[in-house]
Design a protein that fits this description.
By secondary structure, the protein is α+β, with helices and mostly antiparallel strands. It is built from 6 helices and 5 strands. The N terminus is likely disordered.
Length: about 170
């Protein structure tokens, strides 16, 4: 009897690196991708085929990892630009506009979680690539959420930071 996971394993690398992806490793292999996807499943993450891809394509979406206390990842520069266009009166946002990001980070640490989804793929050039999809979501017990019109984005992260977050999501770090 064959292992049912073998039929789900991606076997055809992408022909090229799509836009929006970050290179994680060169000279990688399908075995490394399989090991990462299997570890993600064991860690309780959802591993799914990317919409529009055939099942044999070596690209999968890993979702279901959340991180609390992730206020340091917020992109304050883009948030300030957004606040210039649409002013909001929350104490943490007012402090940010005055030049102090501490109250915003404290608010995010206490009442929000960062939901991390990753799309991981292997290219024909044997590059392991990643596209992150991160978003802040208020916790149900959050007593003082930020206004819903405020769009919270994460700052741009380096390859090593993204790789570590992926490994933590898969239970490998």
């Amino acid at each position: 009897m064959t292992d049912p996971r073998l039929s789900e394993r991606p076997r055809r690398p992408l022909s090229a690196k799509p836009a929006g992806y970050v290179g994680l490793a060169t000279y990688s292999s399908l075995g490394r991708l399989w090991a990462m996807l299997d570890a993600a499943r064991r860690a309780g993450r959802t591993v799914s085929v990317v919409r529009g891809d055939p099942p044999e394509a070596a690209r999968r979406r890993i979702s279901g990892y959340t991180l609390r206390g992730a206020g340091l990842f917020v992109d304050t520069e883009r948030l300030l630009r957004d606040l210039e266009d649409g002013f909001e009166t929350h104490p943490a946002l007012l402090a940010l506009m005055a030049g102090d990001a501490g109250p915003l980070r404290d608010t995010l640490n206490a009442g929000y979680e960062l939901r991390l989804d990753f799309t991981v793929a292997l290219t024909a050039g044997r590059d392991l690539i990643l596209r992150p999809e991160f978003r802040y979501a208020p916790l149900p017990e959050n007593a003082d959420p930020l206004p819903s019109t405020v769009t919270l984005r994460t700052r741009r992260m380096g390859r090593d930071e993204l790789h570590l977050l992926l490994q933590r999501a898969c239970g490998l770090a």
